[in-house]
User: What shape does this take?
Amino acid sequence: MKISIIGSGYVGTITAACFADVGHEVICVDIDEKKVQQINAGIPSIYEEGLEELLKKYVGKRLIATTDNELAVFNTDISFICVGTPSEVGGSINLSIVRSATESIGSALAKKNGYHVVVVKSTVIPETTEKFVLPILEEKSGKVAGKDFGIAMNPEFLREGKAIYDFMHPDKIVVGSIDASSEDLVSELYLNFECEITRTNPKTAEMIKYANNSFLATKISLSNEIGNICKKMGIDTYDVMKAVGKDSRISPLFLNSGAGFGGSCFPKDVRALISKAKEIGYSPTILESVLAVNENQPLMMAELLQKKIGEFKDKKIAVLGLAFKNDTDDIRESRAIPLITELLRLGAKVSAYDPLAAENMRRVFPTVRYHKSAKEALKGADACLVVTEWEEFKKLDSEFEVMKNRIVIDGRRVIKAKSIDYEGLCW
Assistant: This one.
């Protein structure tokens, strides 16, 4: 089929590359000329394992990028809205980019003959597709949804660092539509995927995405709270949660205690659902607690270190890991951000290392010293804080010998070295 992807950020680029890989013809649309040029050169604007290879394989064959929204809509059967939905101060999502994308599609539909389906893939609060996107499309196109054009909601469930694998091997595919024609066309895109398609209405599809991420975030915060309790009682929380995870009703995933969750999805989505719940008159106590626990976890690393070395003023603290998780350069909501903020507030001199995310973090903390290896960051340090679960950190050993004091607070249970003063955050 012929698809246009509106928005060439993380989700848009992954979606475009993967749909091209399964045989669809794809046109990427973005207002950023630089992104368009990069895609047409086979260069992704974000890091994701395997993405550059896919772009280089299909660009110019069945994948192109353009700034011309009208050209894209005219030459495709389905348009996916894959633009950002940033958080507002109170936690609600900002729909201004969704509005702009929708208006552009609607204006193009006004001039196009034939049935066209518009699919929202951006993460939006329940009722957004039907009560926000649909009216704008009807207004701008002068056409009627369900008759002249279709509309559907098709949420993504991608893990950063594993997004291409997740797209190609989904646990679930959800299609929420207002009419059978839209549902069938969108479902046809996934015809060759070995996964049952959940067919529902748009607001249910939207809620599935939020419920999914909120549940996973809750598992993490619950595991961290259990870990905090275990630490005070001298119990190994990993032994506890390993046994808990053997329960088929729970599963072992997302039960590792540590510094908490970050990224572009979990924190933003939980906040947005809290905001929506309060808007309709409900107090989401559990979800608020999930965020409260998560915000406190990285600060507890600083507290543990303070008990070991006293005041931080003028002391060199090495921070290993800046990305919110391993295998990505994404620092959005990274637990390293509140931790470094606290270290700097208390007068510490921070040296940092991350295999991919240093340049991104430099824009947040320009005064921090960034290094090209863990050993460089550790040299002369009074202590070390480990925030991200990079595979290379598991192999660190003799590198700690260059520290002034071999004190290590591990927020991810990755350090295996023996000749250090080691303490885990929750164990």
Observations:
- The chain has 15 helices and 14 strands.
